Each structure stands twice: as C-alpha cells, then as structure tokens.
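Justification of computing resources. Each target in the renewal requires a structure prediction run like the one illustrated here; the chain below, 54 residues long, is used simply to show the kind of job we budget for.
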Amino acid sequence: RSGAMAAQVSIQARDCNITQNECQLGDSKLEVTVAWSRLVQDKLWITRGANEEL
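Resulting structure tokens:
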C-alpha cells in the first residue's frame, strides 16, 4: 500500500559537487544522490540568454 512507510533524510545544500545520503525504509536501504551546480544562478540569467558573466 502506498504511503505505508516513511523516512527522512537531511541533505545540506552545497554550491557544487555531489551529496550522497542513505536512509532505511523497513527492510530496504534507500540511497539518495544530489548533484549540485551553480552554473545557472537564477531564471533571470537564463532569460537574458546567458550572455552575462556569473
């Protein structure tokens, strides 16, 4: 049944690189991977055509 299990993982935000964390869901182990990048800082930068320096 969906929603029968729940867990929480706390991941601290980073400017770049990769963060990996694990949590236990019943008999299963869940690995979460987040790839961080500051390549695009905001939507306004994208709409300007990405011609400005970061």
